[in-house]
Amino acid sequence: MTTLEYGPLDDGPLEYAPAPEARSIVAIRPSYDLFIDGEFTEAKSEERIVTVNPADEQPLAEVAAAGEADVDRAFTAARRAYEGVWSRLPGAERGKYLFRIARIIQERARELAVLESLDNGKPIKETRDVDVPLAAAHFFYHAGWADKLAHAGLGPSPRPLGVVAQVIPWNFPLLMLAWKIAPALACGNTVVLKPAETTPLTALVFAEICQEADLPPGVVNIVTGAGDTGRAVVAHPEADKIAFTGSTEVGREIARAVAGTGRRLTLELGGKGANIVYDDAPLDQAVEGIVTGIFFNQGHVCCAGSRLLVQESLAEELLPRLRARIERLRLGDPLDKNTDIGAINSAAQLARIRELAEAGANEGAEPWSPACAIPERGYWYPPTVFTGVAQSHRIAREEIFGPVLSVLTFRTPEEAVTKANNTPYGLSAGVWTEKGSRMLWTAARLRAGVVWCNTFNQFDPASPFGGYKESGYGREGGRHGLEAYLG
Amino acid sequence: MPDTVPGSLRAYLHGLPGVDEVGVRRRAADLATRSVKTTAKARAIDLAIRMVDLTTLEGADTPGKVRAMAAKAVRPDPADPTAPPVAAVCVYPDMAAVAAQALAGTEVAVASVATGFPAGRTPLEVKLADTRAAVAAGATEIDMVIDRGAFLAGDYGKVFEEIAAVKEACGEAHLKVILETGELACYDNVRRASWLALHAGADFIKTSTGKVTPAATPPITLIMLEAVRDYRALTGRQAGVKPAGGIRTTKDAIRYLVLVNEVAGPDWLSPAHFRLGASTLLNDLLMQRAKLATGHYGGPDYYTLD
Fold it and tell me: Which of B20, B22, B172, B226 to mutate against chain A (most A CBs within 10 Å)?
């Protein structure tokens, strides 16, 4: 009698058949206007921007590039809405609108997830399970605050600031919009928001959602465009407050422009997060956390754990496990439900990643990537791990904003903390150990706005997020985040 | 790896890397979102059928019941001869002879629980006699239970010696060691018990008896798959994993196959190294199989209840 003598599957391992999410749920219009004063209105500026699908370089739609006159109209509408309606509305009423928006986001979740994947290149698994649910959660959370602001610890009757200029990045287009708009509206401000030039589409669907929710005209205005539009938005004299998420370089430029004007500013900028793994870490989960830390959203995450600091005594055991795990990542069609790694958002970003990776190799660090097929069209970069990295290498100091991990080692907890803090940034850090006292000792010494313990890249609207040093200032989310929108 | 230096076994097991509960649950939940459809699904269903240990472990088991189940094991779908047979039938030791007779000449193996299943609260001599009797009656696979009392009391040496002794009593028969993870209290213990059983000679490590809740869960199976993966990397010997209890639907079964594929690797995707201990699962697999082939569901009445 044969018992355990079956061979493996005759025709190879368990291959997942393609499982693409249906694109038909999204109706992308060929062209989009600006959303000002509750209406989609044609831009005065004739300049247009084409947004492409980074996974195949096919154009998706054309959007307006708002000029100064268009931005001016948006601010006029926002001011009128602020003074005429929104600032006078009781908090409970503002909350109702926010709850309504949150529910509509949930109702249109699938459409938003597919559209976000198409426009950004990130896998549908992430837009479906992270971006869109978290965006809805931010509106729900802040809807709850709208009538309780007197209890936020910011004085007995905190006042809104007025009209807020908001400029958001391309890495989490809808989620960053939610992080900006939800608290601003909950606190009684009105907004002029500029989405990133490569990812404007979900913001424009959000404009439709505002209409659907009957949000009073002018409370939310969305002006699409590139750098010039962004400059016009943040420099507009009607802006009482500026909120920016993006690169440190642009953040610096904005800080210079705003300095001395008396206008409020919050900046959420770059990072070079350290993920510290001690030799008593829960090993398999640490491997997962390292992968999530750097390969989530193709590493297009300002709080990515892009520097792995592993205790030298563990490095030899950890690295083969990490490589074996990375071998299993599935790179490809962002709309396939089994895709783990999607496309790089733009040709410009791909060039930046390539430049820094080349610098890493030239400076003597050793790159490794799994054998994975790269699609012919589109912008792609394979998951990459650099070992033998020194603190002085560019890949250990500069933000790559791509799926590239730099591995450094340390010998003692003191050395781990010193190396982790030895960066101009200070946005995020991770600590992996099973020993509670070491965890607390380390976390207390890390100069980073967010420290994750035995996990990484976890987000919650109730938890404040923001940076130290060149990673910016101000907090978003939680009770602390309200402070940025109240006077 | 017996406890030669006093305390060395304990030091070894407690020196294994810890398991972060939140992290392991998250990983299991993440893998549960894999989408296995069309051709991949058809192949996964057939593989899952070939991995089933069709089980009846009731006080009311009779020769008639066991014979009927054996017939189903050999030809699960009377209407479709292309449906593969299951891996084994799993019965109590006193039914092993009946099962062996009914399955003679087929490729379906006879597995018997032993060692005072399910509680395991009998003296070692009784456990060994139980094992030998099952093997003598024709069982080629023995599913033993560990002494959870000894394990939780920290007497790892006793657990190790018992497994080693039962392994010896098995002779040629393959040994599956049931950890009864539902009684082990935490994930760290699941990892320790897995390594203990593997070092003591287990051919398979199995989650549960099916008599305790919770039985098999994806996070627990994931931890055991990591153990056999790492054990092979360390020793070169490839042991198997068998989740048992509570796996009822095709969706569940496919999720377990995804765990195997992505945690241990494709080398484990065969009945030689992965089994599903189940009874009601088989009919759901057959219904889904027919649905894929014909485009419509037959009702439950079209599948035999043996």
Answer: B20
Residue A486 backbone dihedrals phi, psi, to 5 degrees: -130, 145
Phi and psi for A404 in degrees, rounded to 5?
-125, 120
Residue A10 pLDDT exceeds 60: no
A287: nearest CA partner in chain B: B23
Please report where in the chains the tokens 């890493």 appear, as a residue: A360
Q: Residue A378 class from Cβ within 10 Å (0-12 exposed, 13-18 middle, 19+ buried)?
A: buried
For chains A and B, CB pairs below 8 A equal 112
Contact A124, A114 (CB under 8 A): yes
The SS3 assignment for B177 reads: strand
- Please give the Cα distance from A7 to B172 (Å, whole number): 19
Reply yes or no on whether B206 is catalytic. Answer: yes
Helix %, strand %, coil % of chain A (to 5)? 40, 20, 40
B33 Cβ under 8 Å from any chain A Cβ? yes
Q: Are A422 and A261 in contact (CB under 8 A)?
A: no
The nearest CA of chain B is from the CA of A153 a distance in Å of 32
Residue B3: pLDDT above 70? Answer: no
Residues from chain B that touch A8, judged by Cβ atoms under 8 A, are 266-267, 269-270, 272
DSSP conformation class of B183: G
Nearest CB partner across the interface for B267, out of A8, A283, A284: A8
Closest to A130 measured CA to CA, from A337, A296, A258: A296
Work out the pLDDT band at B305, boundaries 50, 70, 90: confident
pLDDT for the residue B5:
74
Number of H helices, E strands in chain A: 16, 18
Chain B residues with CB inside 8 Å of A15's CB?
Answer: 40
Asked whether the beta carbons of A482 and A285 are under 8 A apart, the reply is no
User: Distance from first CA to last CA of chain B, Å, rounded?
Assistant: 43
Domain ranges of chain B: 19-294
Which amino acid, A83? E
Phi/psi for B225 (5° steps) reads -65, -40
Other C-beta atoms within 10 Å of B297: how many? 11
The pLDDT tens digits of the residues spanning A351-377 come to 999 999 999 999 999 999 999 899 999
One of B77, B143, B203, B252 is an active-site residue; which one?
B143
Query: How close is the nearest chain A Cα to the Cα of B235, in Å?
Result: 15
A268 among known catalytic residues: yes
Q: Tell whether omega for the bond before A20 is within 30 degrees of 0, i.e. cis.
A: no
- Is the ipTM here above 0.85? yes
To test the contact with chain B by mutation, choose from A16, A126, A310 the residue with the greatest count of B C-beta atoms within 10 A, namely A16
Domain B19-294: which CATH number of 3.60.10.10, 3.30.565.10, 3.20.20.70, 3.40.50.1370: 3.20.20.70
d(CA A184, CA A83): 15
The amino acid that residue A27 corresponds to is A
Which residue has 């995707």 as its token pair?
B269
Domains and CATH numbers, chain A: 23-269+470-485 (3.40.605.10), 274-461 (3.40.309.10)
| Global pTM value | 0.95
| Residues of chain B neighbouring A288 (CB-CB closer than 8 A) | 23, 26-27
